[in-house]
Design a protein that fits this description.
The structure holds two protein chains of two kinds. By secondary structure, chain A is α/β, with parallel strands linked by helices. Chain A folds into two domains: 193 residues, 3-Layer(aba) Sandwich (D-Maltodextrin-Binding Protein, domain 2); 195 residues, D-Maltodextrin-Binding Protein, domain 2 (3-Layer(aba) Sandwich). Chain A has 19 helices and eleven strands. Chain A has a five-stranded mixed beta sheet. A four-stranded mixed beta sheet of chain A has the order 8-9-7-10. The longest helix of chain A is centred in the N-terminal third of the chain and has 17 residues. About 10% of the residues of chain A have low confidence. Chain B has a two-stranded antiparallel ribbon. Chain B has a single domain, classed as MetI-like fold (Orthogonal Bundle). Chain B is mainly alpha-helical. In chain B, helix 3 runs antiparallel to helix 10 and helix 10 runs antiparallel to helix 13. Helices cover 74% and strands 1% of the residues of chain B. The longest helix of chain B has 38 residues. Classes of the chains: A alpha/beta, B mainly alpha. Chains A and B meet through helix 1, helix 2, helix 4, helix 12 and helix 18 of A and helix 1, helix 12 and helix 13 of B.
Amino acid sequence: MKMKALLIGILCLVFVFGAVACSNNTANEPAPANNTKAVEKEPAPAAEEPKKEELEEVEIRFTWWGDTKRHEKYNAIVDEFEKAYPHITVAREFGEWVDYWDKLATQSAGGNAPDVVGMHMTQVANYASRGALVDLQPYVDSGVLDQSDFPKPVTNSGVIDGKLVMIAQGVTMSGWVYNSGLLERLKVEPPSFGWTWDEFAAKAKEVTTAFNEKGHWGATDMGGDVTSLIYYSRGLGKNLFTEEGKLGIDQQDMVNWLTIWDNLRKEGSVPDAATTSEYRTAPLEQNLFISGKVAFHALPFNQIPNYQNYIKDGEVRALRKQVNPDGKNGEFIEGAYLAVTSGSKNPEAAAQFINFFVNNENAIRIFQLEQGAVGSTKMNELVKTLINPAQQRAVGAIEETLAFAETAPLPPKGQGEVATALLAANESVGFGQSSVEAAAAEFVKAAEAILAK
Amino acid sequence: MQAIRTFWKNNWVGYFFLSPWLIGLICLSAFPMAFSLYLSFTQYDMFTSPNWIGLGNFTEMFQDRKYLNSIEVTIKYVLIGVPLQLTFALCIALLLNRGLRGLRVYRAVYYVPSLFGGSVAIAILWRQLFGGEGLVNEFLASFGIEGKNWVSTPDTALYTLIILAIWQFGASMVIFLAGLKQIPTELYESAKIDGAGRVRQFRSITFPLLTPIIFFNLVMQIISAFQAFTPAFIVSGGNGGPLDSTLFYTLYLYQKGFTHFQMGFASAMAWLLLLTIAFITALIFVTSGRWVYYQE
């Protein structure tokens, strides 16, 4: 019945949208290549446990988000898994980040979500709080899923309401990066790894002055970025989203936050609102940092190698998020996770698959740093022997900041809408449409209303 | 009973041949629509079963500032975009109708944008054209004018989408062109003898005789403008920004349903859009008696 309801809902929307939406959908959707894979007929390798020959053949579905390169890697990992577990066939589904969540929501609603799904902090509440994810603790207890090499905070980051709903696939931390070659050319001393907000503002200004060129700025404007605001709130000893899923900062905090960025914008240390808005969704290779228009850029550290691919005149080096010298550390664990959906008919096979993905040597050799440092410290040592200098800097930065990390409450259901409201607040100040005070008041009001639902 | 049986006996072949369409109509249109009507009175997050809240969605809508803003944006888009697009299409059609050599080639060339118009590729191209370092600004710079970041400034973002809509004038143009060909040349000849100039000829002959075509184009374009989705979705990167200046009704509907898990609210929005379009179309039909001139 649920599936019908959903199908119908979508069809109605499609109908009302008319041809415009239809043509868009087909053009936009990633090709579901390799959707179903024929059961492998080859006999199991002799080295494998012989009893698998007698096991019943099952099929599970696995879905993830990412770009073409990731699809190649994950397909290879799945191939390895199928070799090791000949009785399990894994059908693969994947798409771009935005399409991925739309599709997963629709599938979950229809009761035909894939067995194993790529999960993320910002989305997990949407699923876990509606009972769409399986509690994996029993599989850990029975030994199917092995997390013994995982540090405690990493394991805990997958726990919601006392249930282990997801397993860390790749752990990452957020921070800033700079291009060492660019700073050298501008004759600007690189900032210290744990820079403060004052140091950040000073460096951004120094770089802007050193550039002395229109269309060049010190740093990216992160005033509309929800992760950055979470760090800032934690620096104050608060949480943007509290344990109870409410807004944990007040209007004055918000005024302070927006003022920081407003001042930077007025000084020319970060781009004007229109430029920020234009580049917000720009692909990596076109963004302001890679095209050398800003010197400091905020990102999750696992992306350092991707950025280094495009930057030839220096090293992409990591910095912490701005530190509050009188306050607490902002760091908390981010990353990509794997979860099993409640509708799964073969949760055991799904758990086996996850275990293979995060613990098997062959899988890790392929995965390397794809979505962050792997959860298992043992496997992380293996990865370190395989990777290039940029990747090593990424792992280094993740490890170094991980030391500061504490567990943070997982963002609640409405976090997506709050993120949109934050973007709007920062933009309306940036475009001069409202004062900092008005925008802060508006944001707090909107966020409280969203989180009250 | 007997009557029904006879009716069935006589007509089953007809219905049989009609069945592919009939099944489609019932399964893909009628039933889903009825269900979305039901959903529009419920709170439905797609995971748990729908929860009846009566008119709750509809009252919530009118307290939602983003919703009201999306109506404003959409109406602006329709009111400015459609007349400009039709005028432009008519002007090009008039130009092409002057016995030009190679008319077929021109007609095809001008029609091409309509074919590509709704596509993602064009929307991306638009971003490049009207961006801060886009072609438009480079062109302006050669005249010493300093442009701005058209797609990401709230005051101008919507107008770049309107220009995109105008650029897709081909479909209306082809229909106008066909309409112009229908106007008997004797009328122009006798008007010329009576001493009517070009403007007078247009006002007294071309325009009145073209009103049925204008009427048709107007209805079609208004309906499709209300449903515009792709350009705003792509040009704004999916969020209707900057500052919700391109948050079309359909885009907000999509966000509500698929991003914020409020399918009940989205269904209510869809139904309200359907009713609005139906009402406006009816309004045009009712008033058409006063301004549409049929030759008979």
